[in-house]
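F.,

This is the one I mentioned.
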């Protein structure tokens, strides 16, 4: 009898609090692309790509086990939110009310707080191993200080033989709230454990940046980068002028053209020795270009030790700290409206 009661209670707990949500791994394969995931943080844990001779390498940094991701401070491959990037002073005002978010980086909030979307267990809604997987998370009112319930879905989809689409959707249920999601993959097109990305060439179709202060909080300015070390309007080696910057690249670029529903070409990255090339399109106004300046001997998968500049991140998103800058595109989404962020990657090797 007692046992039965326990069972009923346990079941109730599971249903109510999703305590029974298991952490698992998933795989999508199609054409020459093979990608793995875990529902912890909706992380993309590996991505295998052929080089110009057909040799497959894993081109994203990560860990061998899910425990690695639980322990992690790098956000390798994770979906970050509710608000990606930084919120200055860990607070913002919305409709006359102040909201205080979790100050997990000094006085500021980074990537949604200490237990953001990268550190929660997502459920799996839809999984077709030859095509796509959808992860879902119900974010609650007050989570890391953010207002209102929000339903979040992320779909990874393989298209054709060499394309990966990532669709991030979110719907606020009962209160207006800022929403800004990003996929925090660290790429190294040579292979995840091949050293640094300084000889990769990158082109960023973005003529402006949002400069930041010493704590990496935007000053509110939007400045042209032509001729500066930030200028990647023409393809150029990442390392060619990196020494002119403190630490390396960690800045939001304003993608050229008009933001909206349509996908715009954002970046092209290529690696000469393998011939691999990655092109990225997105519907977002900005892209954070980060050259893993803060990595210090992180123990990664296959016994890799990731050091400074071991990977590059291209996190398409809204502008950082938009909640505190009226001149930046708004990230406020109201109940009844929805947030949609699309990334499209095309991989080739020649
Ligand atoms: C897939 O890889 C094979 C072997 O390297 C190659 O012949 C083929 O062209 C590739 N397909 C695509 C779409 O890249
Ligand atoms: C977790 O982090 C601690 C301290 O950085 C480290 O000693 C430990 O090996 C890590 N565990 C895993 C599973 O990565
Ligand atoms: C918001 O989420 C909480 C906890 O998940 C739930 O109890 C509550 O009913 C939700 N409210 C609405 C309006 O959906």
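My design for it:
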């Amino acid at each position: 009898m007692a046992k039965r009661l326990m069972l009923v209670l346990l079941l109730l707990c599971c249903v109510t609090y999703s305590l029974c949500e298991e952490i698992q791994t998933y795989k999508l394969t199609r054409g020459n692309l093979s990608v793995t995931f875990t529902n912890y943080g909706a992380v993309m844990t590996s991505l295998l790509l052929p080089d110009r001779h057909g040799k497959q390498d894993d081109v994203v940094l990560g860990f061998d086990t899910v425990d690695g991701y639980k322990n992690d401070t790098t956000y390798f491959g994770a979906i970050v939110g509710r608000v990606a990037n930084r919120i200055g002073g860990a607070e913002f005002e919305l409709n006359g009310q102040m909201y205080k978010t979790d100050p997990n980086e000094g006085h500021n909030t980074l990537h949604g707080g200490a237990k953001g979307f990268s550190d929660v267990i997502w459920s799996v809604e839809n999984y077709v191993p030859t095509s796509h997987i959808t992860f879902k998370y119900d974010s609650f009112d007050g989570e890391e200080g953010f207002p209102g319930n929000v339903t979040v879905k992320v779909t990874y989809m393989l298209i054709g033989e060499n394309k990966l689409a990532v669709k991030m959707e979110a719907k606020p249920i009962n209160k207006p709230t800022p929403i800004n999601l990003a996929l925090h993959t660290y790429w190294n097109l040579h292979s995840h454990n091949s050293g640094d990305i300084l000889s990769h060439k990158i082109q960023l179709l973005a003529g402006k940046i949002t400069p930041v202060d010493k704590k990496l909080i935007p000053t509110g300015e939007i400045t042209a980068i032509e001729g500066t070390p930030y200028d990647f309007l023409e393809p150029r080696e990442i390392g060619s002028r990196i020494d002119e910057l403190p630490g390396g690249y960690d800045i939001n670029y304003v993608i050229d053209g008009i933001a909206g529903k349509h996908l715009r070409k954002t970046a092209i990255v290529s690696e000469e020795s393998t011939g691999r090339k990655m092109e990225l399109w997105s519907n977002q106004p900005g892209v954070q270009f980060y050259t893993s300046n803060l990595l210090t001997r992180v123990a990664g998968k296959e016994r890799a030790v990731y050091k400074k500049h071991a990977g590059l991140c291209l996190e398409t998103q809204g502008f950082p700290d938009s909640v505190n800058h009226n001149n930046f595109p708004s990230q406020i989404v109201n109940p009844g409206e929805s947030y949609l962020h699309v990334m499209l990657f095309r991989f080739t090797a020649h």
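Residues 25-349 form a domain with the Beta-galactosidase; Chain A, domain 5 fold (CATH 2.70.98.10).

Talk soon.
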